[in-house]
Give the backbone structure.
Amino acid sequence: MNNNKNMKAIVLSSGGIDSSTAMAIAKSEGYIVYSLSFNYGQRHSIELESAKKIAKAMKVKKHLILDLDLRKIGGSALTEEIDVPKHDSTEQLVSDDIPITYVPARNTILLSYGLAWAEVLKAEAIFIGVTAVDYSGYPDCRPEYIKAYEKMANLATRTGVTGETKLKIKTPLIDLSKGEIIKRGIELGVDYSLTLSCYDPDLSGRSCGKCDSCLHRKKGFKEAGIADPTIYV
């Protein structure tokens, strides 16, 4: 528990399992939480409704949704008219290739907006729910990337250069499996029925059940021994 009740943290929130758990951890550590979500042209923008519900349930200080348009850049099945890969099991996801669901430089872009808000608020931390265990091989989810970004962040801001703040990029889930993340969230009271993980949900918000993210979600609940509250097609 953080003893300084005035410590502030930005939490990047997609409305999914990982970011919601990271938000719960930030609150448990005593931070005043500011939730930051993005409408970046993703085909699964319905996830923002989940982000709103999570922010309300966790009683954050403020929730911002910023509009970007990464569709103009493309390069991903999430921002371009490219089919989202579907599989029957997580065993089929094993590959050395970075999947087409990777959005070019996404975490760098989103963290930079978080960095700007953190500087204005004089926040001490940005929480991001990346994991290097059960993930899809994205380069911007690795510990070495986060370490490099944190160093850059403190060189790039007025508050960092003057020493007014020392910003931490906090990744409390990075060494946890999806099952371990869910168990931790349940301990902290996260309502996972409010979350959405699917890359390709239908118009009513039902998850496809076969994209990378859905398969990792199913596997996580099974490993945690907890009933999956997700509504699948």
